[in-house]
Amino acid sequence: METATRTAFRWTLQPIEDEALVAALGDQLNGLPEPLARSLALRGVASFDEARHFFRGGLEGLHDPFLMQDMDHAAERVARAIEAGERVLVYGDYDVDGTTSTALMTLFLRDHGVEAEFFIPNRFLHGYGLCEEGIDHATDIGAGLIVALDCGITAVDEAAYAKSKGLDLVICDHHTPGPTLPDAVAVLDPKRDDCAYPFDGLSGCGVGFKLVQATLQVLGRPPEDAWRYLDLVAVSTASDIVPLVDENRILMREGLRRLCTHPRLGLVMLAERANVDLTACTCSRIVFNLGPRINAAGRLDDAALATELLIADDPVEAAQLADQIEALNTQRRELDMQTRDEAMQLAETFMAADPMALVLHHEGWHPGVIGITASRVAEHFHRPAVLLTTGKDGLAKGSARSVKGLSIYDALATCADLLERFGGHAFAAGLALPVDHVPELRTRLHAAIAEVVADPDDLLPELEFDARLNLMDVDDRFWRVLAQFGPFGPDNPRPLFWGRDLRILGQPTTVGADGNHLKLRVVQREGGTPFSVIGFGLGDRLDTALMSVRRGRPIELAFCVEENHWNGRTTLQLRAKDLRLEESE
Fold first, then answer.
1. pTM
2. Over the stretch 100-139, which tens digit does the pLDDT of each residue have?
3. Separation between Cα atoms, residue 495 and residue 463, nearest integer Å
4. 208 CB burial (10 A radius; 0-12, 13-18, 19+)
5. Which of 145, 197, 314, 510 could cross-link 68 (Cys pair, CB 3.0–4.6 Å)?
6. Which residues pair with residue 145 across a beta bridge?
7. How many beta carbons lie within 10 A of that of residue 32, not counting itself?
8. Residues β-bridged to residue 505
9. Which range marks the domain in which residue 502 is found?
10. How far, in Å, CA of 104 to CA of 253, rounded?
11. Contact 544, 581 (CB under 8 A)
12. Tally of domains in the chain
């Protein structure tokens, strides 16, 4: 399918309040090149000690779990269940965060002698979150406690139902709370208004991990006992697109080390099918290779398959589950491509009216893939996108995704009277509404976004640069320092550099099955080191590159520096985010 040429980017050099700080950091860090010192300053690093913590901070830098509101009640209740040998039902969600959370808590309880079972609602039978069927299952198995993870913060009615059944409920969530909290033994959510926890960006699995830490303290067990679950926290943190700063960056870094050295069996099996080398696993490998496979189970079948794989200790069982999930992922990709093509075409028709938000409805879209497609639509057109399909109950149901600076949760809140239900956070939300309300939602969301967009140019995608960079500065030391800026993700992206006066060597070309990736080589000055450049999704910039060659004009390049592993060789390459002909000064 052909889609419209990508919208032009705004190129912006990120401002620093005190540029003298950059020079001071460079001096303190043994002559660190100015572009790297600037990148550090943009990440809040202002001294040698802060730089050491940024680069070397370990698990000792994690916050005290008891700073989280209700943690004392939650940890004491879980510890009591362990000491009494109670049955416990672990209640999760059907995405990566939910299944890893469920696996983490189930393993922790079983590792401590508890007969723990888990329940994950079926997307098609139960919908999202706590439901009466799951609560009834807890009663059926004789459980006295439900630990709900990555869900439950708005489950006021369901919490009351659990209480009526004589069940204790502990909620571990990270979504935005509603006006009333559920009546439970404990409600853990760092986004609670009354929660003094110093970091509110944890994933659901991250909140569950903090409960494990606290419970171990109550039990008097070594804190190191929690580290064995860090691989699950890493998969969750990367896949749920939470900010990779503060505590998340520590959890992600240590979790990747765990994946490298002690990966659990289910992740090994999954990685084999995804052709991922866990000894060199990165956030992006999780996001693009492992996460989608785990998600495929809940999107197309039953998320319990993914959780069973994550807790499996039998190689034969794990291999069978991984094969099932791989088959589901293949099916998911086919549905994904079909939905993407249809959604892009439909979005083009609405873009003629230049809406502030895109609300797309198609009754035949599969509910398991529209969240992925909503993300792609939002990224491509750089505006909030809502994708809806028609459920069996006749309601339009779907997912919303947003872009930097625009909260889709807040925008949907202004339309709450149109919706049967909604929930989520600034960048992602789920919703349901009567089909005949969809046109009004389209109108109202446009108005809600228009109110907070000060300038229409704010809806143009922006490239925010850390620094201008001369390629002569990119040497082995530069790369060794730059690599320590990771793990990369939201709020800690790979430093983006602005290169000028770059000459293209040879003939640029497009690569990939659809010819949608740009490949070329550049050099900054005569005698300089040539660098290979790959621009994923930049095939539509080929004409600009060819024009540069024909006219002998240099280009400006927006790029990140990364390693390229090919045929046993490792070299540095530039990953282009955009390019343009350089304007004469």
1. 0.87
2. 999 999 999 999 999 999 999 988 778 778 999 999 999 9
3. 11
4. buried
5. 197
6. 88, 168
7. 20
8. 521
9. 10-17+463-581
10. 18
11. yes
12. 3
